[in-house]
Amino acid sequence: MNWTVDRYDLPLSNPFGISRETSETSETVIVELTHEGTTGIGAVTPSAYYDESAQSVAETLPALCETVGRIGDPHAQQRIERDLAEQAPDQPAARMALSIAVHDLAARQLDLPLYRQWGLDPDAVPPTTYTVGIDSAERMAEKVREAVDNGFGHLKVKLGTEDDRARFDAVRDAAPDAELRVDANAAWTAQEAIENADWLTDAGVTMLEQPVAADDIDGLRRVTDATDIPVAADESCVTASNVPRVADACDIVNAKLVKCGGLRPATRLLNAADAHGLELMLGCMVESNASIAAAVHLAPLVDYVDLDGALLLEADPYAGVPLDGDVFDLTAVSAGTGVRRTTNA
């Protein structure tokens, strides 16, 4: 088995702001595995919030690729996941990139799209939201109008500033008919979130994501109990083992491959949340199609999709699952995740 690891600094079409940072590039690591003439592609955009970086991932992946090479069979996914978790227990982003490449390779060898290998229904994919990052109120309104004009009816609005109300009102005025979801990225206290939820409810917001600090589970519960807006846990729920602690403190769990270490761990997180009666969501970072596409194949399992990361890039050397309006068309994938290289840039 042969492999390559490459890094890309992918430019964003606009600076992307959340409550704790603003990004202008997506620091992406791509891994390609070739076995018996077939190549699988995986990628990750690691987050400093979870203590990983493009450099740490790029330094870790060669040793993980060697492990996969010694196993020698991309279909031995249980063993691969176990061995990689033992080798790099605190580096889920690095494991994620290789998990995607292995699954892509195995499905391509079977000449099946990944969703069909798993037996999932391509018609069950929910529409994806389009995320509007923190910016001036005027610029956020412009972005919202562009998104609606491009066919997106579900918008996620990033908040967590000293002037959230003005920003949100500008967005709502610009898109009076759109379904709006709000993500504070852990920026508010529980009391602030409860107070904000009053006017967000009046404005018709349909989801409030991670309103409080990740470790403030009691605060998350207070917010959930105080508002009729469904509350989602993101930073508070990283892996399946976290689900029991948030199960009575939220309504929705947001699964991201970068948090939990790949496709199989993400599936376990979704299954655990479902078993606890929670609604399910798939999220992402601002990242390449080389990683987004794999998550799309899990989308038939969830109630909400937020997989717009590649749409926020100015340039992406990979294409993924095509969009039909605001819904990913899995039936267009012939094999694997559907990722293909489009440029050497």
UniProtKB/TrEMBL annotation:
PROSITE patterns listed in its UniProt record: MR_MLE_2 (PS00909)
Domain of life: Archaea
Cofactor(s), names only, from the UniProt record: Mg(2+)
An annotated GO BP: amino acid catabolic process
SMART domains reported for this sequence: MR_MLE
Domain Mandelate racemase/muconate lactonizing enzyme C-terminal: 137-230
CDD domains: L-Ala-DL-Glu_epimerase
Membrane-traversing stretches: none
Molecular function as annotated in GO: metal ion binding; racemase and epimerase activity, acting on amino acids and derivatives
Any matching Pfam family: MR_MLE_C
Keywords: Isomerase, Magnesium, Metal-binding
SUPFAM superfamilies in alphabetical order: Enolase C-terminal domain-like (SSF51604), Enolase N-terminal domain-like (SSF54826)
UniProt similarity note: Belongs to the mandelate racemase/muconate lactonizing enzyme family.
The protein's name in its UniProt record: Chloromuconate cycloisomerase
Species this protein is from: Haloarcula japonica (strain ATCC 49778 / DSM 6131 / JCM 7785 / NBRC 101032 / NCIMB 13157 / TR-1)
